[in-house]
Structure formats: C-alpha cells, structure tokens
Fold this protein.
Amino acid sequence: MERSTPKLSDVARMAGVSEATASRALSDSKQVRDRTRLRVYQAAELLGYVASGAARALASRRSGTIGAVVPTLNNAIFATSINALQQALAEASYNLLVASHEYDPQAELDLVRRLVERGVDALMLVGTDHAPALFALLDKFRIPYVLTWAIDAQRRHPCIGFDNRAAAAEVTRHLLDQGHRRFAMICGITAHNDRVRERIAGVRDALRARGLELRESDLIETPYSFAAGKAAMREFMLRPQRPTAVICTNDVHAIGAHFACQELGIDLPREVSITGFDDMEISSLLSPGLSTMRVPKAELGRAAAIYLLGQLRDDDTALPPEMRVQWVERGSTAPPPVGKTRKPRA
Amino acid sequence: MERSTPKLSDVARMAGVSEATASRALSDSKQVRDRTRLRVYQAAELLGYVASGAARALASRRSGTIGAVVPTLNNAIFATSINALQQALAEASYNLLVASHEYDPQAELDLVRRLVERGVDALMLVGTDHAPALFALLDKFRIPYVLTWAIDAQRRHPCIGFDNRAAAAEVTRHLLDQGHRRFAMICGITAHNDRVRERIAGVRDALRARGLELRESDLIETPYSFAAGKAAMREFMLRPQRPTAVICTNDVHAIGAHFACQELGIDLPREVSITGFDDMEISSLLSPGLSTMRVPKAELGRAAAIYLLGQLRDDDTALPPEMRVQWVERGSTAPPPVGKTRKPRA
DNA sequence: ATGAAAGCGCTAACAT
DNA sequence: ATGTTAGCGCTTTCAT
C-alpha cells in the first residue's frame, strides 16, 4: 500500500539535508551545491514527490497561476487567444485559470473576485469595459493585469491590442473607395462590449468623413453566431432598397451573411459586398473568400503572457506597441453594381 | 493608504467573534446563529475581505479548483465543451484550470503533474489514450477524474462520452444504404488520438460487414484544419478513379472538403457525398448542409462537471449513461452517380 | 552552502 | 453555537 503522499520533509530526510536545503534545491536556487541538489532530486524522484502548491503559495505568496477572463469560449476567436496564452504560460511553468462570463458584467466581477481569492498572480481581461469595482479589487491586491483586444483611449490601463475604431474605419474606407454609398451593418451586442461599439464608431467616422451616415435601421445588433449573421443578412437583402455593402463587426456574422447570399442566390460580390473582422481560418476558404480585417489572435495571447510574466519577474517590462491589424481583401468585396450607385468621385 | 489586505482574524475581531466562528460563518456552516453570521458578513464586507485560497486549501486539503486537459483549444469543438464545463463549475463556485497539449502525450503528462501540484480537486481529460504514469499519478493522489469524448472499452476508467466506433459505423451504413461502394476517408492524426482511431475502425467495421474494405491509399491522415481537409479532398477528387463518398472524422475536415468541391466545380452531393463528425454550428449553414454525426459537445462538459462535483461531494454519483449521438442528414450526402456504381442490393 | 525556526492564513477537531 | 488549539507543508529570514 501507498503511504500517504511524501512531503518535503521526507525528501529532505532521505537526501540527508534539512528542509530548507531541500526546498532550495527543488526551486533551483543558486545557493545549493550541485552534489546536494542532485541528492535531493534523486530523493524526490524516488519518492514520487509532488510539491503542495497550496503550501508553497501560502509561504511564498505566489501561486504560479494566472487568470484569464473572456466573454466566451464558444467561438474559435477567443479560444485561439487563450490557447496561445496557455501555451506561453506553460513554458514558464505557470498555470492558467480561465473563466467566461457570456457578456455579463456582474458575472465577470464575481469570477474575478473568485480568481483573486484563488490567488492568481496576474490577470488577463478582454476589452476595456469593466466594473470599477473590478479594477479596485485588482488594485487593492496589487494584481498585475492587462486588457486585451483593445486600446484604452484614456491610457489608464495597460492594454495589448489595437485600435478597433481605426480598424473599422479602414474597412469602411476600402468599401467607400470602391464606390459604395449604401451601407448596412451587422454587429454584435453592444452592451458591455467596447470592441463592438468602437468598431461601429469607426464605421460611422469613415462614413461621416465622406458625408454619409448610417441610420439606425441600417444596423442590426445581434449575438455572435453564424445563424444570427445569416438572419440579419436575409433581412437586409429582402428590403426593397438593398445596401450594396454590409459591414460586419466579426467574421462569424460575415460568414453567416455569406451563407444568406448563397441561399438567396445573390451574387457575391457582384450584387453586394460583405466584410468581416478578425479573420478566422475558414474565412479564407469560402468562395468567394471573405474580405476581412485580420487580427493577430494568437499573438495577443502570447503577448499578454509575456507582459504579465514580465510584470511578475521584475517590473519594467514595457507593453508591446499597439498591435497591427491587416486588411485582407478577398473576393467578397467589389465595386457596387452600376446604375444603382454613383461612381466613386476620386 | 490601504492597510495590508485584511485577513480572517481582522474580520473576526471586527465582528467580535473567534476566528473559528468567522470561518464557519463565511463558509456557510449551519452551526452559526443567523445574527452572528450577519455580523461576520458585514465585517467582511466592510473590510473588503477576500479569503486566501492558498491558506484555505492548505488547511482544508481542497482547492476548489478543477483541471481540464484538452488536446487543443484552437477549434470550436473542445472550446465549446470547456465553456460548458467552466459555466457549470462556476455555479458550484469551482474554478477551472485549463491546459492544452497539442496532441503531445509527454506534454500532457507534464501538464497533469503541474495541475496535481497546483492541487486540483478533480480532473477532466479527453479520450482514453493517456500515459500510464498519468493514471498512476492521479491514483496516488486520489484525484477523481473522468475521461470524455469516448468510452473506455475495458471499463477501467470513468468515462463520459459515446462509442466513437459504433457512431462511425453508423455514418458508413447510411452511405452504404444509399448505394455507395467506393469510399475514401479523411482523418485526423491517429497517434495519441483514440477517437480518430475508433472512428476509422468503425468505418472499416461497417464496410467489412458488406464485403468492402478501405485501402490505405483511400485514407488521408492530416491535422485538423479546414485547409488540410480541403487539400485532402482535392487529392481524392483529382485521382483518376474517384470515390463516391468521403467520410471525415471531423466536421473541420468535412467543411474543408466541402470547399474543395466548390472550388473544383464538383457537384455536391451529385458527384460525391461528404460526411462529417461532431456537428459544428457552421455545418448546418453550408449549402448543401453537411451531413454529420452530432455530438453533444456542451452536454459533455456539463456532465463532466456534474460527475466530478458529485465525486467531490462523495455521494456516489453514478456516471451518466453513454451519450447519444445523432445522425443528421443534410444535403451533402446522396446516392452515388448512376452508371459508376452498382445499385445497392437490399 | 546549509540549518533552525518562525510563520504564511486558514480549517477542523475537540472542548465547552 | 462558539472558542481553543493544533496543525496543513512549504519558504524564508537569520544564523552559522
């Protein structure tokens, strides 16, 4: 029968050293002679010693755990980021505690509270929209954190992301330059989602700069799902006066919209253009391919890991510069049908 | 200035009770008078008290944390399961530690070791293929675990899943019944992936039962990505002797295959039938829709949570019965082109 | 380079 | 129903 699981004192005894030395040896402290360290390693190995994270955390005040709170893991977008984050953390022997709140800010606060309780050493959050109490909590416990997928306009929080507003404006400009004048938009739920709001604002910026505007009726706000994107697109396409370009705040919607066209027999991009945002793997494989703004999803996770790890090691790890997004023009965009819209002026 | 973060003794003092009582009150023990509990709550609230998970874990020998180790979070399939698992755990005030190993068994073992060190109370794994040392470790530490997405043939481990082999056989039978005789298969990497191997075996079972077999050259093994599925399908379709039905072990591949047909101008399902496995949201939206075996992804996560939580409560929660999968016939399957294949006999 | 000893902040017998 | 008292297993001064 297995004796109760070995503890550090067992390892120390077996190696013929004190607990202190055993502890140092196992945590790679420089101040242990190689021969001693080896003896300790062997003893640990032989006993199948596994340290108690709880005891270690209590004594050292570090848990070796980092938390990540995302809106959802239900689509591949955040999942990809989280996957990269976890991989990077694992290399540094850190563990990742994940939580998703399905876009409910109260749930998010609760989750963060629980993560703090669990002793996360640092935290990754998505976006800038968070309860003040959340930041207060992190401050009080001096927990390093980083906001991702966005840039905080007021620069009050460390961020790893990009300018959603500018990026969306750029998308819009590409369409404008192609001659589009009648726009519609399919966007995610804006409540508690700064990314969506910024992307909408960016579209409006670009339109306004050319003397256009987006009426409320030209904007359908709906949860992120392929089906919702498809339904929204149907609605637009069944209107007497169709838009010639439909901007989506997310590839999930755009792909849904793409399917709607297929089903309705609408020629994409001849009759209507569609743009996405984020660039999922599948977007490049549709025919026509989806024109979209590529976001470095995995890179965001990796950069968050590097930054947080840096914060935990010393302090002055600089934030990486604003991330670059990239417009990827594929087949889902083209100039609007002639006769229905004026040619572009410039 | 903020004093150093309050501890239980501060709460106790403020509430005018002993630490023990404060501890009981906060952990909802029945043996505390309501009035006392209230005083403790208020004190805790006032001080902004947040318990130390490490201390609690050390003293109680429970961490309130459950681990999940999945192959990857890069596609929506496991992500959906994990999302459901996390949601269910959160309701029970448990945290989820996730790790992905990208199909590397050594990495998996390392991750599990670290999770054990971190003190996870229970663990969710995917599939039945795991290093013996992994199970030994969980045994030694008496950590409840559950394997998911599969059923262990020897019944040596608790599983929540379904019979991949039988399910794949069923897919194949649907195709056989439609009259198909020339099959090809696109599958995920089989090494360290029992689900894939079982699904292949299921296909072979069904074929053999009708006197057919799958030659090695009719099976392309490739990583799970849309692009890989597409490439594999191209290869099959460019051969002089095309299969009339292509079975994929996963919707990701099948969707890729779908795109290949579109690009090659191959009429789906007239010229060739394609089947998937898992049923992702997007699969129903393609045209034609993808015929696939639906797997209750979120349900798997939820059931795992319920089972593990039950094990921790130590009531003898039974494992749920084998999960049901469901054949969803959509437009990507049809009888093979006439003249190229004999009619089905029965 | 190593050891002795004092906690880290909480829970869980055991009393009362 | 509440208090007293030991730890839980490790890290980390402080000595030597």
Observations:
- Chain A has twelve helices and eleven strands.
- Residues 7-9, 19-20, 23-24, 27, 51-52, 54-61 of chain A lie near DNA strand D (CB under 10 Å from a C1').
- The mean pLDDT of chain A is 93.
- Chain A touches chain B through 60 residues (CB under 8 Å).
